[in-house]
Amino acid sequence: xxxxxxxxxxxxxxxxxxxxxxxxxxxxxxxxxxxxxxxxxxxxxxxxxxxxxxxxxxxxxxxxxxxxxxxxxxxxxxxxxxxxxxxxxxxxxxxxxxxxxxxxxxxxxxxxxxxxxxxxxxxxxxxxxxxxxxxxxxxxxxxxxxxxxxxxxxxxxxxxxxxxxxxxxxxxxxxxxxxxxxxxxxxxxxxxxxxxxxxxxxxxxxxxxxxxxxxxxxxxxx
Length: 222
Ligand SMILES: O=C(CO)[C@H](O)[C@H](O)COP(=O)(O)O
Description:
Ribul_P_3_epim, binds ribulose-5-phosphate, EC 5.1.3.1, TIM Barrel, carbohydrate metabolism, alpha/beta, globular, 8 strands, metal-binding
């Protein structure tokens, strides 16, 4: 399974998003944090901006919806041009139905779990998703510290995916940096979201390369 580095534009300059996306053209997906000020105590951007970003981005968009009522709102992000749409388990009433609806629109469907949400209720459903996002911070803000307590959940998720012989990606988001990415890779993640570690770097493209090399050196087994 390949390694993917998805910089989060949460730490980018919101007044210059087109050039901020150009700066990460060597990454795999641009991670777009959609926050509604209800599911999380922060407000970022919504559908019209995602629609524009999808048109100008040199790489596909990975939309991470930190919004309530995901069943109702998530499909519109697929129609807006995101290549991958992630909704939160805590915000979806019918996650399997929603994932099937997203896939029917031709996008990758992913489910996200906050640090206190267990993977166990979803273990028999893994094949319904293209990716599982294990949050390694409480969602809402960039620049937080990576939560090592989430590593066992990443391990259990990867073990279940391997045991079922599924091709499901495991994404980590929150506090991912050159200091923490190896631990996440060792635990079984293969998709890495990094906001501040990329956009606070003098050269975002070099930061993407460094993260990729560190993860690739550890991800031989998955
Ligand atoms: O989903 C998020 C916050 O809810 C962000 O994607 C995440 O925190 C990235 O920022 P950083 O790498 O600075 O932690």
